[in-house]
């Protein structure tokens, strides 16, 4: 809040030189308190943020007028600056009539900010959760380390985009339905040219990609296993009968109930990692399962009670993998991403997604799949489908060369086998 006062003081001094007097800031209603602070990525150093775009009275007017919802993604962040674009101004002025400032200047400021945003060599689109931002910053760090021109200040910007899955938190994912719940709006920003690359958790990416986009890059995969977290038990087997386990994943739910039918599952246990841990601490549920990869990327491993073996909890397709997309006609971005791609991860993810595509899986279907390279260099694939209530679980496995065409064929073949075994109505239980 002291920083907001500092910026407002500078703006007041500049306005005074022009014969304009601005009202003193109200800490309870200042735009920095209401909008900026709550929107900042947790990984940014708040003490080093320079709101350079707010250095004039007109741009203060832009910030305080906020105005109406942004029609496009609202926040562009770099390591040291934050600017706001995409807002449309209301017609009535914010300042009192005696003031000489007008929104013509504010409109100019918005255009100037948009021009500044375009100066970035790479604009990274991402969701705004702490985990999504950690993944975006990991991408940023790797780009900066691989390309000298991207290590310059302001060369890379991070654009936070709110997706459908972020907006609707009152319903289980399976009830919302549809595909691309956490990617659609980011893909649209990519196609529209608002961002240059899009960073996704691969398990959120539908098996089809939108037209005009490609996904040529996967970063090295993190640990694919699930973590068991509880305040009162050491494992799922240690939970008393009737205990409630919180998870929004039908994959986890079906595998839990298959092995421990005496337990109950709270399906609408949604929110980011921090939210779910808070609910657990408040006693909403007795335990929860979270992806170990996310906890590692957030440096929150101290919360883990135990780690579930893959044989007991097969992971989601592409769990632990980060995917980066760009436009199909953007050779410059494709070249940047080629330098970051981890081919072993890309092939494993492709195998798993071929399995998922064959099953036409979505958030409504409990499906798990995992491909890995064994000690001999071959691909080992394991796949699973289950009824939502866990009463039936079907498994299969494949082994073959660790090569793209062979792994795609393995994934498809495994999917066809389980689809045949499941029969009609399998996923309706």
UniProtKB/TrEMBL annotation:
Short name of one Pfam family: Porphobil_deam
Biochemical pathway: Porphyrin-containing compound metabolism; chlorophyll biosynthesis; Porphyrin-containing compound metabolism; protoporphyrin-IX biosynthesis; coproporphyrinogen-III from 5-aminolevulinate: step 2/4
Principal subcellular localisation of the protein: plastid
One of the GO biological process terms: chlorophyll biosynthetic process
Coiled-coil positions: none
Entry GO CC: chloroplast
Record keywords: Chlorophyll biosynthesis, Chloroplast, Plastid, Porphyrin biosynthesis, Transferase
Biased composition (Polar residues): 27-48
Lineage top rank: taxon: Eukaryota
Required cofactor(s): dipyrromethane
Function (record text): Tetrapolymerization of the monopyrrole PBG into the hydroxymethylbilane pre-uroporphyrinogen in several discrete steps.
Protein known as: Porphobilinogen deaminase, chloroplastic
């Amino acid at each position: 809040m002291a920083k907001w006062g500092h910026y407002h003081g500078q703006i007041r001094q500049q306005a005074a030189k022009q014969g304009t007097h601005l009202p003193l800031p109200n800490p309870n209603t200042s735009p920095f308190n209401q909008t900026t602070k709550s929107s900042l990525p947790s990984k940014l150093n708040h003490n080093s943020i320079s709101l350079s775009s707010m250095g004039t009275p007109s741009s203060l007017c832009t910030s305080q007028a906020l105005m109406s919802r942004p029609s496009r993604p609202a926040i562009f962040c770099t390591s040291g600056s934050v600017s706001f674009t995409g807002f449309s101004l209301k017609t009535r002025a914010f300042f009192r009539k005696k003031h000489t400032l007008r929104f013509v200047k504010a409109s100019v400021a918005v255009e100037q900010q948009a021009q500044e945003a375009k100066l970035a060599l790479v604009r990274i689109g991402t969701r705004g959760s702490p985990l999504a931002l950690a993944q975006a910053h990991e991408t940023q760090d790797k780009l900066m380390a691989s390309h000298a021109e991207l290590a310059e200040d302001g060369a890379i910007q991070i654009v936070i985009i709110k997706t459908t899955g972020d907006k609707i938190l009152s319903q289980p994912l399976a009830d919302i339905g549809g595909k691309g719940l956490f990617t659609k709006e980011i893909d649209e920003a990519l196609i529209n040219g608002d961002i240059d690359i899009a960073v996704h958790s691969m398990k959120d990416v539908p098996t089809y990609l939108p037209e005009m986009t490609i996904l040529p890059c996967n970063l090295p995969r993190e640990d694919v296993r699930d973590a068991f977290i509880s305040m009162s038990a050491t494992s799922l087997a240690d939970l008393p009968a009737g205990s409630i386990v919180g998870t929004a994943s039908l994959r986890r739910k079906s595998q839990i109930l298959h092995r421990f039918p005496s337990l109950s599952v709270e399906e609408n246990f949604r929110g980011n990692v921090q939210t779910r841990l808070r609910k657990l601490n408040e006693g909403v549920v007795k335990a929860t399962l979270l992806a170990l990869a996310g906890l590692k990327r957030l440096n929150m491993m101290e919360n883990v009670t135990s780690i579930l073996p893959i044989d007991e909890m097969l992971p989601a397709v592409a769990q632990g993998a980060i995917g980066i997309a760009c436009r199909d006609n953007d050779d410059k971005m494709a070249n940047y991403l080629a330098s970051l791609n981890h081919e072993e991860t890309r092939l494993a993810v492709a195998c798993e997604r071929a399995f998922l595509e064959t099953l036409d899986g979505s958030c409504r279907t409990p499906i798990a799949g995992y491909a890995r390279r064994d000690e001999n260099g071959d691909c080992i694939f394991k796949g699973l489908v289950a009824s939502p209530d866990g009463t039936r679980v079907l498994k299969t496995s494949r082994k073959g060369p660790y090569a793209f065409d062979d792994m795609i064929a393995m994934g498809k073949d495994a999917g066809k086998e389980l689809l045949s075994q499941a029969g009609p109505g399998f996923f309706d239980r």
